[in-house]
Structure formats: C-alpha cells, structure tokens
Design brief:
Nucleotidyltransferase, domain 5; 2 domains; 6-stranded mixed sheet; 19 helices; 29% helix
Length: 512
C-alpha cells in the first residue's frame, strides 16, 4: 500500500525502508525544478497562505516556525525583516538561510542585510533594549517577522508593527510571529494579544486559522470588531482600519524532516513544565517564577480568579493614586474597599499633568471620604497639594523614605516605604491569609505585580528587604508599572480610618 503523500508521518515511515542511494535519488527527483523553499503540507502551508494581517504560528517546538519566516521572505514578500530579541540569537537564522540557499552570497553580516534571488531583500534585526525599536522607525518592510515572539516586550512588538509600509502596492503587508509558549510571566501578553485562540477563559473563543478583526482605541486598548472596515474611536475624527489576526498551531509531527531525526524523543525527555510547553505547545503550562520574585504569579492569579464585580460595595477605605509623569505613562487610580479592589481607572498623563487636572480626575472617583495615597514625587506633589486644598485626606507616598516597619513574622525590616508597601501586599495575597484580597482580572496588573523583585540587604545591624526600582521594571516590561504601584500604595502604613468622624472631618467637603 502506497503512503499518503499528504501525511508527513506516513512519508517518514515509508522512507525508513529506503537505502541511502534511494533517498538521494528521491530527493533529486522531488526537488528538480522546484523553488528554493516550499512549505510543508499542513499547518506551515496554511500559515504561509493565511490572509491574516497578523499571524502567530506557534506551539510545539520543531514545527518549522523559523523556516516559515525565511520561506515567506524567499517566496511571497519583497522586503522583509526578521527580528530576534538579541543579536546573538540571529546566528541560527543566518545558518538556516545559508543551508536553504546553499551559499552566503549576497549577505552583508555587518549591516544584517541579505540580497536574495529575484531581487528580494531580507534584513535581520534585534531589539535588546526597550527603546531599540526606534532604530527601525520609518523603514519600509512588507513583512515583519518575529522569531520567538514571547521574548519581546509588548511595547516593542506594537511599535515595530506600527511602522509597516511598502513602496510596492502589489505586495501584501503582513506580520508573522513564531514562537513557543511563554516560559515567564513577562511573555503572557502574547496570550492576551491572541486571546480568542490561547486564553481558555476568553468569552468568544476562535478556532486555529479563524480570522478575527481588531482595532486599537485612543487609550491604546484592543477592541474586537465584527469584521474588516473602518471604525470610529472616541476622541479621534479619523476612523481606524481593522486588522485581522489568527493563530495556527505548529506541531513537530507535521515536520517531515524532524520526524526522521528523533527530535520528538528529545522533547519527550524534557522536564516539566518545559515538556508540556515544547512538546504539546501548552500555553497554560506553569511558568516558573524567578527566585527573587516578590509576589508569586499563582497568588495574583488566585486573587483575580476569586474577584467578582459588585453592585453594592463596602465603604471605600483607600484610593491609591499613581500619577503619570507624561509620555506614554498612564495615571492610575486603585479604589480599595476593604479587601476588595474595584476595577482600576486610568487616564493619559497629559490629562493629569498639573495639580488641578489630577484632582479633577480623582474627585469623581472618591467615596466615603476615603484617604488618597498619592505618589508624592514630581508631578505627584502638585496633585497632592491640589487634593489637600480641596479638603481631601491624603497620605503622601515617597518610596525612598525610611519605613521603620517589619515583616508580619518580625524577621526582616523594610529598607524603605516601597519595600514596605509591596511586602504588605504580598502578605495580603498569601493564600494562607485569614482574609485574602480580591484583585480585578486585569492582565497588565498581573504583569506589574509579578515583575517586582526583592533582595535582602544590610541596614545597620539588621537585615532588610529592598524592592527593585520602578525604572528597572520599566526597562523589563517596556512601560511603567502604574497599576501595580497604585494597588501597592494602598498598603502603606499610616492610612487613617476616615470612618471615625472628627469635628474637623465633619466640616470637610463631602466627596460622596
């Protein structure tokens, strides 16, 4: 019985019975007169021919993901660029393209440009630092490829694809991403970006290869829309054009070449959770937290899982206000009602860049004369002055200020207020706590809280906890951790109980 030529596994099984000479003869017959590269039948071919504007081809290791990027540059595109997070990681791409072409002719390794047959051009780029995307600003490419997409920051990805354009109107413009499931919390944005396919909690799941359409609103948030076309967004007179996305799962079983090498057995020997991530392409397999991560990822997820929206809320006990310093940062308000947090509210930095503007943003959110814990550095100090001028009870938060507090178990001191408020938040999230807190299911809040690291330092005669600086976190996640800071600020010591009414407070303005 002849093997099914559309089934890579059947072909691989049949080829086991051929001699070396017969394999060489078959290879010559099959490749004579064919292009330099052809997609393998199955998911790889489906991914290459997908009409999606933005495609993610990923899942299992060994599914021919890098080959898809190179093959697109060789066959369907005119001027392509393929990114890796670090330049040293481009070596594998160079070697694979050399093997496909049989030569390095046309490649200028100094500038990372490959002149390909047929007048095509391929650039190789890297964006190790968060702002390295600016090196490629304004340069025309009809294909932007990302190898190991979960290694990139979301900000890098979004800014790089924002500069998609071509000088040739006859060439389609597309984004192809390749990669395995994320191995750390920093890569979880990928699950959010392709939520209909990868997030099991998504309210409207999609099948592999199915197209979904999205726009980005004025606040930088994605919105799914019914289909292609232009859609208005609030605050912008010009409608935006919807872009399509899809996800196609890669599989080592669909790779004819690796099926013959024992590569699958290598994946089967990996320890968990790598085995599930690489062999099964499991996007939910456990991501290991760094040793010095302050708040375990599972604790934050558990707090978000037990959260439910409430029509009737308890008294507001505090409001954390992290004030943006301009740029792309967002001012964030975290409204705390005892152990339950309401959904976070944000405004662009330009909306709160003065004290009166900041106060105008916060005033409608206040209830029950709750104290406002204000980041009191820079523009935050102006917001503090304006709020206090309106009679609002404020708690100034200066992260570098000395704490004087100790951990709940009394073993360690806090290096400063920033360490204090984040460790107190950790203690409140501990699943063994008597009354753990409830956090809204906000993906950015999850990343913010899981990006904080701690270390133990010497402070005089005592050991003390110190937290990672905000600027270090910004470098890692590509944005300011405004949501995490706003929540953490409500755990700083010295927040007054405003339910106890003094004569002075009874005469203060009623902010509902």
């Amino acid at each position: 019985m002849l093997p099914d030529i559309t089934d890579p596994a059947a072909i691989a099984e049949a080829m086991k019975y051929l001699t070396a000479e017969e394999r060489a003869e078959l290879d010559a017959l099959l490749t004579e007169g064919l292009p330099l590269w052809m997609p393998q039948i199955g998911p790889q071919s489906e991914a290459l021919n997908s009409p999606a504007d933005i495609i993610f081809y990923g899942g299992q290791a060994g599914g021919g993901k890098t080959d898809l990027l190179l093959g697109a540059a060789l066959t369907t595109q005119e001027h392509s660029i393929i990114f890796r997070r670090e330049s040293v990681q481009l070596v594998g791409i160079e070697e694979r393209m050399t093997k496909i072409l049989g030569t390095r002719h046309g490649y200028n390794s100094t500038i990372g440009v490959w002149r390909l047959p047929g007048g095509r051009v391929l650039e190789l780029g890297s964006v190790k630092e968060p702002d390295d995307w600016m090196k490629y600003q304004g340069r025309p490419h009809d294909l932007k490829g990302f190898d190991e997409i979960t290694h990139f920051l979301e900000l890098q990805f979004r800014t790089l694809i924002g500069w998609m354009r071509s000088d040739n109107p006859n060439i389609r413009q597309r984004v192809i991403c390749a990669g395995n499931p994320p191995t750390s919390s920093e890569g979880e944005w990928v699950i959010r970006f392709w939520g209909p396919w990868l997030d099991p909690q998504h309210p409207n799941p999609a099948k592999p290869g199915e197209l979904r359409w999205f726009i980005t609103d004025g606040a930088g948030k994605d919105q799914e829309v019914p289909g292609p076309g232009q859609y208005p967004i609030e605050g912008d007179p010009v409608p935006v054009t919807a872009k399509s996305r899809t996800f196609i799962r890669s599989s080592v079983d669909d790779n004819l070449y690796l099926s013959m090498t024992g590569y699958k057995a290598t994946l089967q020997a990996l320890p968990e959770p790598l085995r599930s991530q690489m062999l099964r392409g499991d996007f939910l397999a456990g991501r290991s937290d760094p040793v010095w991560q302050t708040i375990p990822t599972d604790w934050v997820k558990a707090a978000q899982a037990r959260w439910k929206a409430r029509d009737k809320k308890e008294r507001m006990t505090a409001l954390g206000f992290d004030v943006a310093r301009g740029g792309i940062d967002q001012s964030t308000a975290a409204r705390r009602h005892g152990q339950w947090f309401d959904e976070l509210v944000q405004a662009p930095g330009i909306v709160t860049n003065t004290g009166p503007k900041a106060a105008a943003f916060i005033a409608p959110l206040l209830r029950d004369r709750a104290p406002v814990c204000v980041d009191a550095i820079g523009v935050g100090s102006s917001a503090l002055d304006s709020l206090e001028g309106l009679g609002v009870v404020c708690v100034p938060v200066v992260g570098s200020e000395a704490s004087g507090q100790m951990t709940k178990d009394g073993n360690l001191r806090f290096r400063n207020k920033r360490a204090e408020m984040y460790w107190r938040l950790r203690e409140a999230l501990d699943p063994t706590a008597e009354d753990p807190i409830y956090l809204p299911p906000d993906p950015e809040l999850l990343v913010d809280l899981c990006s904080v690291r701690y270390k133990v330092v010497q402070m005089g005669k005592f050991a003390a906890l110190q937290m990672r600086d905000k600027d270090e976190i910004r470098e890692e996640i590509g944005r300011s951790p405004d949501k995490g800071d706003a929540v953490a600020q409500t755990f700083i010591s010295g927040i007054p109980d405003t339910s106890i009414q003094t004569e002075e407070r009874r005469e203060a303005p009623d902010w509902r």
